[in-house]
Write a structure and sequence with these properties.
By secondary structure, this protein is mainly alpha-helical. β1 and β2 form a beta hairpin. The strands form two sheets. It has a two-stranded antiparallel sheet with strand order 1-2. A two-stranded antiparallel ribbon has the order 3-4. It is globular and about 65 Å long. Helix content is 70%, strand content 8%. α7 runs antiparallel to α8 and α7 packs antiparallel against α12. It contains 13 helices and four strands.
Length: 269
């Protein structure tokens, strides 16, 4: 009888120790605790039914629109604060610094993900960035400068797009340059006296345009397609001339010259 009791007691101890020492169970428990802790640290975002009905047009070029509800805009600002910071960063810096995706807990206590993590996502980030920055920059007062910068940047983008026979990069740039232009307006507001040069900048403008024209000629001189199809080469050169004429017409002061040069160097050189 005593032997049976001792055996039963020993077996019980072994079972308890096996349970304690089960590595898989321990790991699963630790993972569960980690997930709970991570979820606890995530922001909780509760949608407002009324704000969901209020739609804001962020971008509209006549054939394509980008719209968000005010719920979504509030969510974006909370998850990606650099899109609307007090201290303004360049759009690419704001995009990279924020991170491209964020997790949060929704109104049903479930984890969700919001992301700008794609080429189209980055386009949208730049457009939302421009939307908020435009409000800070005074949307009405600086509208002429904004429109001029956008046209200048489009001309540069089309020159390089034509040189390279197009590509998705140049298509995405058509949206991203909206954010770039808005940042340039911000620079003008913050440094107005710097850009108001009291000298004649015409020679700088002339040298810049000549350098741009020479670059186009040099690139086209090694273009095999141009040597095959002379008529197409002439059409391409005519398009380049049109874009150069646009840049020449719009660079009416040192600020525009400075910004279009910076835009070209940052994005295409």
């Amino acid at each position: 009888m005593n032997i049976s009791r001792i055996a039963l007691f020993t077996l019980s101890l072994l079972l308890i120790n096996c349970k304690k020492d089960n590595p898989l169970e321990t790991i699963n428990s630790q993972k569960a605790d980690t997930i709970k802790m991570q979820n606890h640290l995530l922001p909780i975002i509760i949608d407002d039914a009324e704000l969901e009905k209020q739609i804001v047009i962020i971008y509209d070029n006549g054939y394509e629109k980008l719209c968000y509800s005010k719920n979504d805009l509030n969510k974006i600002v909370k998850l990606f604060p650099t899109v609307n910071e007090q201290i303004v960063r360049e759009p690419i810096e704001a995009y990279l610094f924020s991170g491209i995706w964020k997790e949060y807990i929704n109104s049903t206590n479930k984890k969700e993900t919001y992301t700008f993590g794609s080429e189209a996502g980055q386009d949208n980030f730049y457009l939302v960035y421009a939307y908020f920055l435009k409000k800070k920059n005074d949307e009405i007062k600086y509208d002429p400068e904004r429109k001029t910068l956008i046209e200048l940047y489009k001309a540069i983008n089309e020159i390089y797009g034509t040189l390279n026979y197009g590509g998705t990069f140049y298509g995405h740039q058509n949206k991203r340059l909206i954010g770039e232009a808005e940042y340039s307006v911000h620079c003008l507001i913050k440094n107005t006296t710097y850009y108001q040069k009291n000298y004649n900048f015409s020679k700088q403008k002339k040298y810049y345009l000549e350098a741009l024209k020479q670059y186009i000629l040099d690139e086209e001189s090694i273009n095999v397609e141009n040597k095959i199809d002379k008529l197409e080469a002439e059409k391409r050169m005519e398009k380049f001339h049109q874009k150069i004429a646009t840049i020449e017409k719009l660079t009416t002061n040192y600020f525009y010259l400075n910004q279009v040069q910076n835009f070209e160097i940052k994005n295409y050189k």
